[in-house]
Amino acid sequence: MTDNFKVEELPESKLIVTNDQGEQIECEVLFTFESDETNKNYIVYTDKTMDENGNMKAYAAIYNPAEENSPLIPVESEKEWKIIEGIMEWAAEQAQKLGENPAEGAPAAPTPGVETNATE
Hints:
The chain is an alpha+beta fold. It has one domain (about 5-120). About 15% of the residues lie in helices and about 30% in strands. It has one helix spanning about 80-95; strands at about 5-10, 15-20, 25-35, 40-45, 60-65, 115-120. Strands 1, 2, 3, 4, 5 and 6 form a 6-stranded antiparallel beta sheet that branches.
């Protein structure tokens, strides 16, 4: 699994997502990666809310790292979700080895049409 992607950790990276109701929500970028299998770039982020099992909610979307304020594109294929879930499991294992508290659980589908504005 670790042979077909590159993970880029972004320390203290934040982004603002706008939901369907027009509300802006500050999120933390957990990591980004490029998949050689799909030739797409993905961003995994959290709004630091918890699900009903007490796990931090995590979201994933397709984005263009070369484009400032790149729109987030919903992940729609089962193949892509399997890749993302595998990467998230690997990242959680790595974080556990380092003694960090990883976001647990499978990513929830991002809201269609959500756009991001990176902040520092």
